Amino acid sequence: MAGILLRLGFQIILLSCSICAFALAANITRSPSCPAECSGNNVSIPYPYGIGDGCYISKWFEIVCNETDTFNGKSRIPVIRRFNLEVLEILLDNGQVRVNYPVFTSCTNDPTTTFKEELAGSPFVFSSSGNSFVSMGCNNAASIWSNDGKVSIGAVCQSACDHKTISSRNGKSCQDIDCCQTTIPKDIQSFTARIEPRSDYSEKVVGECRYAFLVQRQWFENNFEMPNPNISFPVVLDWVIDSTTKSLLPVDPNHSPPSSCASGGYSSFDWSFTYISRCRCDRGFHGNPYVLEGCQGISLGLVVILIGGWLSYKAVNKRKLIKQKEKFFKRNGGLLLQQQLSSNEINVQTTKLFDSKELEKATDRFNVNRMLGQGGQGTVYKGMLSDGSIVAIKRSKIIDERQLEQFINEVVILSQINHRNVVKLLGCCLETEVPLLVYEFIPNGTLSQYLNNQNKEFPPTWDMRLQIAADVAEALFYLHSAASSPIYHRDIKSTNILLDEKYRVKVADFGTSRSVAIDQTHLTTQVQGTFGYLDPEYFQTSQYTEKSDVYSFGVVLVELLTGQKAISSLRTESTKGLASYFIRSMEENNLFDILDDRVLKEGENEVFVVANLAKRCLNLSGKKRPTMKEVSMELVAVQTSRKGASNLDQEKYEEGDYVRTEMYGQWAGSTSTTLTSCVDSSDQHLLPISS
């Protein structure tokens, strides 16, 4: 016991020394009495940069802390005030600063030009050695040139077209089709960027965007990914101290041991005044050369104390982290998941466990720029794993017993499903503060984004709408007839229907789904669902059946026919719900008045067949609604009459990722192996479930 206390006391002493030493090092890297960082942000702000009056050398180096939304609430980020660019890192020794810089986007076939002049007249330039100019997108010719005639002309980057989306390549490198990377001219401050179709390519590309952007070369090569119109990438800026402000430095700019500053400037500019390129601490000294006595020597004894204290701190922190993972595992339902799987004797596929560090890196620490969407159960982020594959990571927003049960339920449900029209669960993680689910990434968003005129550049055709309806119906038929325990989705709606790179359906969001015995209903104590899609019979009786999913599908079918929202305040009170509005229009023979223009133009007699099918799905009596098997058969019959059976068969089975033993026969039992827990195996917290 005494030995343990002695070791603990020694570790505390070393840790205290370590803290003091690091505090000393921190104090010499910034101007006294000035904030070292924005509150809650770990980006260090050393002099000559500064936060607040008197803390920076000139107006160009003023930092302000702007409030922004992040995955865990409000946060304050450092921003260079004159440029309104977020600071990621300030590198004193290199005379550089890393900032977030926006992507240039064009989603049309017309040329798009962007002028950027925020650095004009400043002591900052875009680093030619640290940055690249990248063009991405099918049939894209992007160019960049300086607006200052004294700087070299510019750069052009053309990306070819292979009729596939960039995301299908899993973003492993830029040495491929649809991506071009090149160097940028030297000493650029203001420039013009232009995106246009390649002159040697006459075919127009529909439904895809083209991108051009500056990006830190090293970061991009390690974090290659498909951009989107709202994203920003790290860019390196070179900076210097000009002769008009060098007198404000508290050190002698010529030589003030143990620091020194080298005179120089930007070679491409013919300016009459010279610049101080950068200051450095002399060899053997460390700190901030721009601050008086900022460069300090480190003694051997202090080094030993620092190393010992740091090692002790790491050991204590590691034990604390292990205990924290155990705590999160229990709180996030690891035991509940084990209990549900074992008690229900469910055979499931193997689900990969993910380390929390890997998912943090994949999402850039759950950066708000990676956010794909938010829902009642959590927030979904886009991420790239270490093998280059793109994934969607669902992170719970609030931890309470009800949401925890939904999270565990989604793991159990999705682990039983193996169907090409259902989003695939790749794994989960329970060792973090909030539980995480990892899915395959579906690049083209939700069905709702393509209806209601939300995406005017790529409205779905009638054939696409038929295919989407058939895919959703087939997925629900599979769920309802799966093995001995049918699965009721319970929240079918257009925002839960995702579209892949070929605009084929992936049904998602199984948080409220239930697996029940055949010929049983699910009695609930609380009605759950989305207004506009909710089965009226379920709302009155609290009994959810497979016909409740049929009703929700009927609403989606009407959305495909009309292009209108399930609930709209633009309609009258009695027709605010799309289902009742559609039924009334059919009963009054006004169907043509509410159909989408494209459906009217491209659809033929089969539009009436689909409309009548939707009406039957929306019958107020669940017993009078068709089953999803019948719905699926009728939709395939419509497609067959429109395209011909042979063409349809070839299209529906070209991927060959699942096989039916007979057309619309009972599905065979699902595959089964073992589901392990989502905790690092090194911590010995596995969930062995017998298969």
TrEMBL record:
Catalyses which reaction(s): L-threonyl-[protein] + ATP = O-phospho-L-threonyl-[protein] + ADP + H(+); L-seryl-[protein] + ATP = O-phospho-L-seryl-[protein] + ADP + H(+)
A matching Pfam family: PK_Tyr_Ser-Thr
PROSITE patterns listed in its UniProt record: PROTEIN_KINASE_DOM, PROTEIN_KINASE_ST
GO CC, one annotated term: plasma membrane
Gene Ontology annotations of biological process type: cell surface receptor signaling pathway
N-terminal signal peptide: 1-25
Subcellular location: Membrane
UniProt cross-references to InterPro entries, sorted A to Z: Kinase-like_dom_sf, Prot_kinase_dom, Ser-Thr/Tyr_kinase_cat_dom, Ser/Thr_kinase_AS, WAK, WAK-like, WAK_GUB
Alphabetized UniProt keyword annotations: ATP-binding, Disulfide bond, Glycoprotein, Kinase, Membrane, Nucleotide-binding, Serine/threonine-protein kinase, Signal, Transferase, Transmembrane, Transmembrane helix
Membrane topology: Single-pass type I membrane protein
Keyword Glycoprotein tagged: yes
GO molecular function annotation: ATP binding; polysaccharide binding; protein serine/threonine kinase activity
Domain Protein kinase: 366-636
Domain of life: Eukaryota
Protein's recorded name: Wall-associated receptor kinase-like 22
Organism, as annotated: Juglans regia
